[in-house]
Amino acid sequence: MPLRLQAITRDEHLAFVKALPSASHMQVPSWGDVKPDWRAESLGWFEGDGRPVGVGLVLMRPLPRLRRYLAYLPEGPVIDWYAPDLAERWLEPMLAYLKSRGAFSVKMGPPVVVRRWSADAVKAAIADPAARRLRDTQATERDDRASAVAEALLSTGWRQPEPGGEDGAHGFAAGQPRYVFQIPFAGRTLDDIHSGLNQQWRRNIKKADKAGVKVVQGGHDDLPAFHRLYVETAERDRFVPRPLSYFQRMWTALTAEDPDRMRLYLAHHEGEVLAAATMLTVGEHVWYSYGASTSRRREVQPSNAVQWRMMTDAHELGASVYDLRGITDTVDDSSHLLGLLRFKVGTGGEAVEYLGEWDFPLNRLLHKALKLYMSRR
């Protein structure tokens, strides 16, 4: 029997997530408030006896001049992805409900891990002149259940969009990253985690401490200082920065839901903020969300100091994983993104490949028109 799906309140949604070890920060009710251009709705899956068994935050974006919507569940929904009747029992009720709400296409990001590469495996891939992409190298660990999920999606009409552009071809396609870098914390002491850092990381942390770099927690009033560094970082690393208002809205929305949902850290040295970063927490999963730094006085290693302070606090919060978010899939020396991968590999964690984002066209004509529009942006 298919599960019953219906709209639920924010409180019901949040209560379900709080009972779990973790869920994506993009699948909590407050994330809808971060995206004002989308209409947010909380969905709940229920057994016949009324017991809730899954939730999802769906963001609905209208087509210009039409009352039709793209429905997007980033890094979700929060359901039993390994259920043998995944498509029929879980996803078909969702598609039927969203179609009734005016959706012409549905996009979702199953939080399903496909493969993992240890730090040593990633370093070996970078050092191999024949290697071009991480996906083509030997993984340290593979979860065969991911193949069954992919087969279930393909057999019922779900499709993965083609990556576009140089960055898209290497794991930075539009939407959420398919490849991320994570540091396992579960069952490890802080000393274990510190010992897992490479020699350069440990040296830089020590250097920052000796130079007098002080990392402090900030608040809403410190977001402009963070944003100034973030804009400088965007210019240096060639990406389009988000406006200050985005981070102010994120802070207000997330901390209203949970005071520890979002934190801001700033590295001070001789009266100047040299680096800053935001940290997000849901249950036992902690994310390094946005980072920023100036090119001035880089020799005192403020970015390493900020990361180590966040790792320390994440461990104190009981995190089972510290997530450094997106990485490139390329291990080619010619890529300008390789430096970011090297920085994250130095933490001694692991590269993780997720199943990626999937689309279901409820109206093929409108879905095709959207794809054409996005390809020309």
Automatic annotation (TrEMBL):
Task: Spell out the molecular function terms from Gene Ontology.
Answer: aminoacyltransferase activity
Sections of the chain in a coiled coil: none
Q: Which GO terms describe its biological process?
A: cell wall organization; peptidoglycan biosynthetic process; regulation of cell shape
Task: Name the domain of life this protein comes from.
Answer: Bacteria
**PANTHER family per UniProt:** LIPID II:GLYCINE GLYCYLTRANSFERASE (PTHR36174:SF1)
> Which family does the record claim for this protein?
Belongs to the FemABX family.
The identity of this protein, by name, is Aminoacyltransferase
Give the species: Streptomyces spongiae
